[in-house]
Design brief:
Length: about 210
């Protein structure tokens, strides 16, 4: 698998450590906590969040080069020193290239819902993917997910319901009201304009599987 880490100025093959994992400390040049956004799209969330939390390292990944280029145009070299972008298709193999217990937070905002039943197998959030995310999250690490798609919401809630190593922060598994310091993404705005309100989910890793 070829991964490209992209910075404001240049594209380069990323440094992997001796275990063939992302050398996160080397990439950011410090030991600050690391938050990962999967499917950053046009980058509204990552770019604002990084300004709000300068002492957190933000790694944004997206499979589409066009999206990465859009984000690069918006990044300010000085103000966004805590942002790095990676073009890669994320799947359960994430546990191979990200160190175990190394991420404090993971955000997945408006993942493609693949609404047709025959396409459900393409959905990002699957049992094996949650297993992989639980490996890379630290204990008490947080996974935030948002989608406007009700059936995908129920799919996600069902997957987490029987797991004993994650708890939901929300009694019903979701809330419809944005939480404090919410950042609205391109997709959230688009779907709201079409009349679809998001479901917000928040899970905390409370143990190993
Ligand atoms: C529906 S858009 C949402 C973008 C953004 N999060 C937002 O809320 O506006 C989904 C994004 O995820 C990216 N994506 C989809 N599947 C992916 C995967 N498996 N790995 C990395 N990126 C993915 C797509 O390229 C796209 O930019």
């Amino acid at each position: 698998m070829e991964k490209i880490l992209i910075e404001k100025r240049d594209f380069f093959k990323i440094n992997m450590d001796s275990d063939n994992q992302l050398d996160i400390k080397n990439i950011f040049g410090n030991d600050n906590p690391v938050h990962l956004e999967i499917g950053s799209g046009r980058g509204e969330f990552l770019i604002q969040k990084a300004l709000n939390f300068p002492d957190v390292n933000f790694l944004g990944v997206d499979i589409k080069e066009k999206r990465i280029k859009t984000m690069l145009r918006k990044l300010d070299l000085e103000k966004h020193a805590n942002v790095k972008l990676l073009r890669v298709l994320v799947d359960e193999n994430i546990k191979k290239w990200i160190k175990a217990n190394s991420l404090e937070k993971i955000y997945i905002l408006h993942p493609d819902p693949w609404p047709k039943r025959k396409h459900h197998k393409h959905r990002l959030i699957q049992e094996s993917f949650i297993d992989a995310l639980s490996k890379v999250l630290v204990l008490n690490g947080i996974l935030e997910i948002a989608t406007d798609h009700e059936e995908y919401t129920n799919w996600i809630i069902k997957l987490f319901k029987d797991r004993c190593n994650f708890i939901s922060h929300f009694k019903d598994g979701f809330v419809r009201t944005p939480q404090e310091s919410h950042i609205e993404t391109y997709f959230e705005t688009k779907k709201r304009n079409e009349g679809f309100e998001p479901f917000f989910m928040k899970y905390e890793k409370i143990g190993e599987k």
